[in-house]
Amino acid sequence: MQISPLLLPEMIEAIDQTITANAEEVTALDQEIGDGDHVYNLQRGIDALKKQEEALSQLDWVDAWQKIGMTLMSKIGGASGSLYGTFFVTMSKAARDQQMDLSVFADALSEGVESIKKRGRADVGEKTMLDVLAPVAECLKQAAADNAALPELLNKINQVAEQGVESTRDMVATKGRASFLGERTKGHIDAGAKTAQLMIAAVVSVIEK
Ligand code: ADP
Ligand code: MG
Ligand code: MG
């Protein structure tokens, strides 16, 4: 894959910008059915990654993902820290000793998603970040199998991620803090699904440039 970790600083900055720009909206979502700290949690992780971005850009993807995962695990409190931490560490393990290309990346992403399912004891349909991450991983696997062209793939990723966010609206949360509210979570988008989509769109926008 010609998409190099040299793009990591730009990706991290783009993620920082979109989370900051949408902070109020996302916090409101997490206040409705969670404890309102999701943006704060993510920003702790993003700030830590910003301090490492030059170092990260000099690594290969496998080492960069490992370092990102360890940083997120130690810097983010809340469910999202250990879930995203596990996600990146697992991606790193899955791609180790392989020649990076779309298919290796797609497989690593799928394994990362599986690790979130395991760690969170959750699956698609439970109103979490998985409702965005899992369909996006599936989309990449399909694209790798079909040898899809990059511009179309990036559009598709954005589309699938947005659909994933919207799909959480009518779900009843059965995992995380939102599950305490049960049926009352219906009608609200999940904050973690929303930020997953925003971060994916940020990464896509850097690759599109
Ligand atoms: P906390 O819920 O501990 O305050 P955050 O607010 O940072 O942590 O993150 C909440 C988000 O994490 C939720 O919106 C949801 O998307 C995701 N989440 C919570 N629990 C799980 C789980 N068991 N599996 C997958 N994702 C989860
Ligand atoms: Mg929270
Ligand atoms: Mg919390």
Bound molecules: adenosine-5'-diphosphate, magnesium ion
- What fold name stands as the CATH topology? Serine Threonine Protein Phosphatase 5, Tetratricopeptide repeat
Major β-sheet annotation: none
Overall radius of gyration? 16 Å
Mean pLDDT: 96
Q: Tell me the overall shape.
A: globular
Protein structure class: mainly alpha
CATH evolutionary superfamily:
DhaL domain
CATH architecture, please? Alpha Horseshoe
User: What oligomeric assembly is this protein in?
Assistant: single chain
CATH class: Mainly Alpha
Ranges where pLDDT stays below 50 over 5 or more residues in a row are none
Whole-Å distance between the termini? 16 Å
Number of distinct beta strands: 0
Q: What share of the residues does DSSP label as strand, in percent? A: under 5%
* Strand/helix succession: HHHHHHHHH
Domain DhaL: 6-205
EC number: 2.7.1.121
GO molecular function: glycerone kinase activity; phosphoenolpyruvate-glycerone phosphotransferase activity
Protein name: Dihydroxyacetone kinase subunit DhaL
Which short descriptors sum up this protein?
EC 2.7.1.121; transferase; binds adenosine-5'-diphosphate; binds magnesium ion; DhaL_dom; 9 helices; mainly alpha; phosphoenolpyruvate-glycerone phosphotransferase activity; Dihydroxyacetone_Kinase; 209 residues; Serine Threonine Protein Phosphatase 5, Tetratricopeptide repeat; single chain
